[in-house]
Design a protein that fits this description.
Number of helices of chain B: 10
Number of strands of chain A: 5
Helix content of chain A: 40-55%
Radius of gyration of chain A: 23 Å
Shape of chain A: globular
CATH topology of the largest domain in chain A: DNA polymerase, domain 1
Low-confidence stretches of chain B: none
Number of domains of chain B: 3
Mean pLDDT of chain A: 89
Shape of chain B: globular
Mean pLDDT of chain B: 91
Number of helices of chain A: 6
Distance between the termini of chain B: 54 Å
Strand order of the largest sheet of chain B: 4-5-10-6-7
Helix content of chain B: 25-40%
Oligomer: heterodimer
Radius of gyration of chain B: 20 Å
Order of helices and strands of chain B: EHEHEEEHHHHHEEEEEEEEEHHH
Number of domains of chain A: 2
CATH architecture of the largest domain in chain B: 2-Layer Sandwich
CATH class of the largest domain in chain B: Alpha Beta
Structural class of chain B: alpha+beta
Largest interface: A-B, 34 and 32 residues
Structural class of chain A: alpha+beta
Strand order of the largest sheet of chain A: 2-1-5-3-4
CATH topology of the largest domain in chain B: Enolase-like, domain 1
CATH architecture of the largest domain in chain A: Orthogonal Bundle
Order of helices and strands of chain A: EEHEEHEHHHH
Largest sheet of chain B: 5 strands, antiparallel
Chain lengths: 190, 303
């Protein structure tokens, strides 16, 4: 007989403490002890990806992770992707483009896609790249194309949002240049 | 989860020497690395053992270190780390295998040491390690030793590792200059499937000849195996040459040695019929993979 262990981890930005058996699955800790029921269990053997969560930025199957190994980790679940009531670009794209149907695979899809977009660092990943990244997330509804489209659309919004942020400075620079030009004496005027 | 959690004990070592003491203690604990195989069994209630040794605190088992001779990969190195490590670009077959082990979720957790310890005949990285003649460093309270990877797999899911020993690291020597390596996993779908056939071949080239040939297969015998008879059939024969504008599909491969190597495979391999594939299909594919390796070699730039 073994005593439960105390595990401290950061879940969706909050420090959480639980006292659980060391081999309790992270999936069960999240759902039962922390009442975060967004991550689903599909197969329980690391094939379907429905239970995916991020550990230190990397997508993992939470049905294959013991609580003992989540100690000290930074965990993000589907509940942690939105900022308050504002959904992430990926979540909005899934809704707009029909990337979610029955919804069982969706939390895992969004988690792994989040890792993909973080790795892509502002680049829009290609169709094959998205499919390779999501190979560990099975969907029985959509036929995948709408999911791939949604991920790429979200990547594009992130890229254009970044450009928009950079624009005021670029625009200001252009203004300075044109000011200089107009200040230049116009000697060639006939 | 069908395992009785309250009956399970998990030992957390403070360091490698503490871990070696713990694994020598009775009842001997099962090493736990990324858990991607072990938890499948636990979830299914198919794992009767109840004492585990969590290796994750052991920094001594992590890291990738290059030297003039080759690269030493800590047993806890994940496939994700192998995929991304710039120093492994001279081992493209290993990187390719790491990129096809399960999906991202598995690659982010599963370890090279775990792939060896699990000793599945279908373990994706194992033919790569065999074809590159890797050596495995093993430690126990009695000391350290090294074992060539081709002496490690002794029977179905059986290893020449004592129960009080831990896999510390895997040393892979650099291939010779101009060597050609190919990794191929043949399965039902491209990602996340268990192989029907998994293959790695390395051709060490001298002048225009195949000086040393290493061919290794998974899912073709009770253990991952080197195909030594087929290797002998190729060794010493001339490298296939690309013929002018010939397409990759029809090079002038030295047909006789390739055919001899294919015939020799029946001495090396003993595949079975199972839910994933059947014996004839597996043998056919195994032979074609040798031909593919020769084609890749024919069209590789000579250095």
């Amino acid at each position: 007989m073994s005593r439960p262990i105390r595990v401290t981890m950061t879940v969706n930005g909050r420090r959480r403490h639980v006292t659980v058996p060391a081999m309790k699955r992270l999936r069960d800790v999240l759902r039962e002890d922390l009442k975060l029921s967004g991550s689903k269990e599909g197969c329980g053997e690391g094939e379907c990806g429905a239970c995916s969560v991020l550990i230190d930025g990397k997508s993992v199957n939470s049905c294959l992770v013991p609580a003992a190994q989540a100690s000290g980790a930074r965990i993000v679940t589907i509940e942690g992707l939105a900022r308050g009531r504002r959904l992430s670009a990926l979540q909005r794209a899934f809704i707009e483009l029909g990337g979610a149907q029955c919804g069982i695979c969706t939390p895992g899809m969004l988690i792994t896609a989040t890792e993909l977009l973080q790795r892509a660092k502002g680049r829009v990943p290609g169709d094959q790249e998205v499919r390779e990244a999501l190979a560990g997330n099975l969907c029985r509804c959509t036929g995948y194309q709408k999911i791939v489209d949604a991920v790429r659309a979200a990547a594009r919004t992130r890229v254009s949002a970044k450009r928009a942020k950079a624009r005021p400075r670029a625009a200001a620079a252009r203004t300075r240049v044109s000011a200089k030009r107009s200040a230049r004496p116009k000697t060639r005027r006939p | 989860m069908r395992a009785a959690l309250s009956a399970i004990e998990v030992l957390r070592p403070r360091g490698l020497s503490h871990a070696l003491e713990l694994i020598a203690s009775e009842p001997q604990p099962v090493p736990l690395a990324g858990g991607t195989d072990l938890f499948v069994a636990l979830n299914a209630g198919a794992e009767p053992r109840t004492r585990f040794l969590d290796l994750s605190p052991l920094a001594a088992l992590r890291g990738i270190r290059s030297s003039r001779e080759g690269v030493t990969i800590g047993s806890l190195t994940t496939f994700r780390e192998i995929r991304e490590h710039a120093g492994l670009r001279h081992l493209p077959a290993l990187v390719a295998a790491a990129a096809e082990v399960g999906g991202w979720q598995i690659q982010n957790r599963a370890t090279l040491g775990g792939n060896i310890a699990n000793a599945s005949p279908a373990g994706d990285a194992l033919p790569v390690l065999l074809a590159h003649e890797a050596r495995v460093k093993i430690a126990s309270v009695r000391g350290e030793r090294e074992i060539a990877i081709d002496r490690l797999f002794t029977g179905y899911r059986q290893l020449a590792i004592e129960r009080d020993e831990l896999i510390v690291s895997i040393h892979v020597p650099w291939p010779t200059r101009g060597a050609v390596a190919l990794f191929r996993k043949v399965g039902t779908r491209r990602a996340q499937s268990i192989s029907k056939v998994v293959f790695c071949g390395v051709l060490h080239v001298a002048g225009r000849g195949m000086e040393r040939v290493r061919l290794a297969y998974g899912s073709m015998a009770p253990v991952p195996v080197r195909a030594r008879a087929a290797e002998n059939a190729l060794e010493g024969s001339a490298l296939p040459a690309p013929q002018g504008a010939g397409s990759p599909g029809s090079p002038d491969v030295s047909e006789s040695s390739a055919a001899a190597a294919r015939r020799a495979l029946s001495k090396d391999l003993a595949p079975i019929d199972d839910i994933r594939s059947d014996r004839d299909y597996r043998m056919d594919i195994a032979g074609r993979l040798i031909e593919q390796l020769l084609r890749v070699a024919a069209f590789s730039p000579r250095r």
